[in-house]
Design brief:
By secondary structure, the protein is mainly alpha-helical. The chain contains nine helices and five strands; from the N terminus they run H-H-H-H-E-H-E-E-E-H-H-E-H-H. Among the domains are: about 70 residues; about 100 residues, 60s Ribosomal Protein L30, Chain: A, CATH 3.30.1330. The strands form two sheets. A three-stranded parallel sheet has the order 1-2-5. A two-stranded antiparallel sheet has the order 3-4.
Length: about 240
């Protein structure tokens, strides 16, 4: 502590003692311990010993005086604590961007799934949307690592079932569909198609009937002009729902 700071410190102690009706005891220069950058706790406690009687409230007041008077002389700049490590703020997105990128990568793989609804019924003929999809796959497959997945069929009849509903898988049909896609991609220049095309479940399951119905109703109710009254159509309130047109 330099001489100017010490003089101000002693003056503050004297004024505080007068306010507390307590006579200050002279402080030896050696009694005030000051380390490299700040008045340590030992120095504060040593100063407090010079007062014979001091309540808890007065101690708090004394600390406030020291702070207000600038007696806690220390560093003029903030330094990083060694035990805290690097506390430099990172750029926005440092932690969250990898999460979004991984989700985007996972979604890209679904672009290479040929779904069951892209075939004409329970056949090996692609519909128009399916043909367009295969062309898009052929244009991108060379630059991606994803396999081409043929979604398993689920509309065949099991002759050994009791009711013979068309809700079963047909492995033979799936293999014919896979071979058709292999031939199509090979004809468009993808010579590794035999190793890239597989049969399997879709990466993301489709909606069930009730889920699809609810999604459709939400989509319609959010359309401009319908407002929130479209659901009333089922109860006779349809005319009120379309009044916004």
């Amino acid at each position: 502590m330099d001489s100017a700071s010490r003089t101000l410190f002693e003056k503050s102690l004297y004024e505080f003692a007068r306010a507390s009706k307590t006579e200050p005891v002279p402080i030896s220069p050696n009694e005030c311990r000051h380390e490299q950058h700040a008045l340590t706790l030992d120095g504060v406690l040593l100063s407090l010993r010079n007062f014979k009687t001091m309540s808890t409230m007065r101690i708090q007041t004394f600390a406030a005086i020291l702070t207000a008077s600038g007696m806690l002389a220390g560093c003029t700049s903030c330094e990083k604590c060694a035990d805290m490590g690097d506390i430099t703020p990172q750029p926005l997105g440092t932690l969250s961007d990898p999460v979004w990128q991984q989700q985007e990568s996972n979604a890209e793989a679904s672009d290479f799934v040929i779904y069951e609804h892209e075939w004409n019924g329970n056949s090996v003929d692609l519909n128009l949307a399916g043909k367009d999809h295969v062309k898009q796959i052929a244009a991108r497959i060379e630059s991606t690592p994803y396999p081409v997945i043929i979604e398993r069929s689920s509309m065949s009849i099991d002759p050994e079932s009791e009711f013979r509903y068309p809700v079963n898988n047909n492995r033979e049909l799936d293999e014919h569909r896979r071979q058709l896609i292999v031939d199509a991609l090979t004809a468009m220049g993808m010579y590794e198609a035999e190793n890239r095309v597989v049969v399997g479940p879709a990466l993301t399951p489709g909606f069930t009937g009730p889920q699809a119905q609810r999604a459709y109703a939400r989509g319609m109710s959010s359309q401009s002009g319908y407002g929130g009254n479209y659901g009333g159509a089922y109860g006779g309130g349809f005319s009120g729902g379309v009044g916004g047109f």
